[in-house]
Design brief:
The structure is a single chain. This protein is an alpha/beta fold. It folds into two domains: 2-57 and 360-441, no CATH class; 60-349, TIM Barrel. It contains ten helices and 21 strands. It has helices at residues 2-8, 73-84, 140-148, 173-185, 228-234, 298-301, 304-313, 334-348, 357-369, 458-471; strands at residues 50-52, 60-66, 88-89, 92-93, 101-103, 152-156, 193-195, 238-240, 254-258, 264-268, 273-280, 284-291, 316-321, 352-354, 370-377, 382-390, 409-411, 418-422, 425-426, 432-434, 438-441. It starts with a helix and ends with a helix. It binds zinc ion. The site of zinc ion (ZN) has 5 residues, from loops. Keywords: Membrane, Transmembrane, Transmembrane helix. The chain crosses the membrane at residues 12-32.
Length: 472
Amino acid sequence: MYAEEHEMNKKIVTGTLVVGLVVASLVGTSQIKQHAFASQVHLMPKQTVTERKFPWPYHAMLAIESDADHTDLRKFNIIHEFLNTKSETMLGQGLGLDISDSFFLYNGSNEPRKIDYNGETVKNEMTMFDGISNIPSADAPILLYYIRHGWIDTFHSAGDFSRVNSSTTIFSRELEINALNFLKKQNEVPITVFTDHGNQSNVANFGSYTAFDQYMEGDNPQSKYYITDLLEQEGVRYVWSDHFGDQFSYPSMIYPITLRDGSKMWGFYRFTGTRKVAYEPGLGQVANWDTMWNPADLGEQLDSSRLNALVQSGGYTIIATHLEGNANLFPFNYSTIEALVHLSHMQDHGLILVASTSRLLQYNLMQQGLRDQILYHASTGTTDINITQIIDPVNGDFIPTVSQLHGITFTLKDPSDAMISIHGVPIPDSDIVRSLHTIGIRWYTPDTTNWAITTTSPIYAHLKQEMETLMK
Ligand SMILES: [Zn+2]
């Protein structure tokens, strides 16, 4: 993954294509591509190639993006055993879905709220460090393990810094420096997604510039709460900047944001609930938000009419929720479980591909920015779909690696004599998948391993030891 980061910044160099007989013109992905040399027409198979929006056979892509508020290990494990594995769990037969989660680095909150049925409060929230100290918490080896195995892929702000008095903060830039150094020493895969959190005490938030968001200092280089330079070094590429959203399906989830330090980052949308615009005396038009990001509302967010409309429109969606946000013995209610089972059936039926947030966003970036040229090797009759570059107005255009292109798919009449190349280098057939009329780069292999562990699991002592060794 570190190698890929390097690739992200690589600029385009013009290379020479080594092919037998080359016929090509560079065209946009939205255009239909059809090429033929007048003199060679009789030799060539007529192959029209178009980029498919999603991997075959899916019509839409969906991520469930969970904010880490009120998480403890008990709830986290119950929920992810149910969502990600195929095991028998206390919420039912595991669904085997690719749903990742977020985490807090620090616990700087003094809110007195109860977070679990056993009496735990926000003080017991699962975070990487104890309070705001530089001492890893008892859960830290487990969080690192989950990041490594894809159960966690998102920073929830710089930690939980919500104070009862929201005009105060105990956050500092030094805390972010400490945390990111720690992750680097642990050889963690770079975390590419950041979601803003909580009240105005969370001064490291960034990316939104409304009057209410004046408290956000994370991208202000003049501020002692500036962190976006550190996040960019870590590999953060996408931010949800605390904008509510009532649109469910999007042609693209990402939009460029210019930060106050002059750098750019991709913002992304989330579906947080519905909105009614009402007239209130003295205030005029007021938007009343019905936020649905408690897990008890997932059934409503994933209502089958919404999912059907998503399939119809062929779009992306990211559902905002707080999977571990309830304090009940059973963290999901019946309608939530039912909705998730229904969602997994829609994936089984080839309608909606469920992907972790980081994978959906990366796919979205590749899919929308992809440029290619169609080559015909007349001697072999092979159609060569040559991916030339990814247009990326935020990080700069670049030549992608195969591992950045999981799921990229093309429609054509006969894929049996087709191949895909990246900048003239053929992709090995082991990374290629074909259907009757598509050829694509293989999506991620589903991982339904039950990674759930606790501090009493046999592997825990080993993970803790490993973490402590790497800290030195
Ligand atoms: Zn939050």
